[in-house]
């Protein structure tokens, strides 16, 4: 029987949510009253280090980005629709939003109201979740800084048609999850989601996307390479800095083919040659329009530019611009502050010898 979509179980939804829409009545009124910093000015502030900060240098003269960086944040990827053109919160508004967001991702509280099947499908309790409890210091209402409305660009008709066909589970299955399907009895691992198969993480990217847990990135530098190691799926991207050409187009990789260069104190990483087995992007959970959920596009059409700029001793600004004209009508840019941490990155064993896969 062909699986059909259903409403997301609450516990499962929280476990995979990539954004939160939690807006108070006060915020709605402020948005309507136009109490907001202009989007263009806020975007420029998020994307530019204007403090004159000079980062420490490695022994070979590069800005020193080495160490572990935490990209947790409760700031939503997209600006909630209720906020309209409001680009930044006031201090009081952000605190109200933060408290609502913490309640939204409290899996244990949701389980008290969930049906037994939803409780089992959700799997993890709050101990395993790691959304964090803080929002960005710039008080922006979205991680998206361009377009100015703080929301993802419109999908192309090709991308919309692809979403409609996703429940058929034709190969290659680009969806990250099977959550949200009913009457679904997988005939084999190849029809499960990429994240369930431990082939691709739901936050590791590229690009990085703050989510439920394992929001850590380790950076290692040499004179000729930079290595980006994500805790999720423990993917290591070894990026040449020697000016060499990209691989031939037919040589595609799960994380694409990356080449890096320094532009002043900013590391710029350009990536193409993504495999068509992965999606262009995992849309954030949209409770108001549940037809607009899930993975979209084919990463084979994606071009990604990432920028890393150390803006203080404990903050590394991560920005990316994603362009896939077959999925989104326009490119979009996201800015995420990464926080330095002394925490260790542990092995990500996923489903431990495929026992979990067999049980699925």
**Average of the residue pLDDT scores:** 85
Number of domains: 1
Strand content: 15-25%
How many beta-strand elements?
A: 14
Q: End-to-end distance, in Å?
A: 17 Å
What is the helical fraction, as a range of percent?
10-25%
Task: Tell me the Rg in angstroms.
Answer: 20 Å
Q: Uncertain segments of ≥5 residues (pLDDT<50)?
A: 7-48
Q: What does the overall shape look like?
A: globular
Order of helices and strands: EHHHEHHHEHEEEEEEEEEEEH
Overall structural class, as computed from helix and strand content, comes to alpha+beta
What would you say about this model in short?
With 360 residues, the protein is α+β, with helices and mostly antiparallel strands. The chain has eight helices and 14 strands. Strand 8 and strand 9 form a beta hairpin.
Could you explain the architecture of this structure?
The chain has 360 residues and is an alpha+beta fold. It has one domain. It contains eight helices and 14 strands. The strands form three sheets. Strands 2, 3, 5, 6, 7, 8, 9, 12, 13 and 14 form a ten-stranded antiparallel sheet that branches. The two termini are 17 Å apart.
Keywords for this entry:
360 residues; alpha+beta; 10-stranded antiparallel beta sheet; two-stranded antiparallel ribbon; 8 helices; globular
What is the element layout, followed by pairings?
Blueprint: E1 4-5, H1 10-16, H2 25-32, H3 39-47, E2 67-70, H4 91-104, H5 107-111, H6 116-122, E3 144-146, H7 157-164, E4 181-182, E5 216-221, E6 225-230, E7 236-240, E8 257-263, E9 266-272, E10 281-283, E11 294-296, E12 303-312, E13 315-323, E14 332-341, H8 355-359
Antiparallel strand pairs: 1-4, 2-5, 2-14, 3-14, 5-6, 6-7, 8-9, 9-12, 10-11, 12-13, 13-14
Helix pairs in contact: 1-6
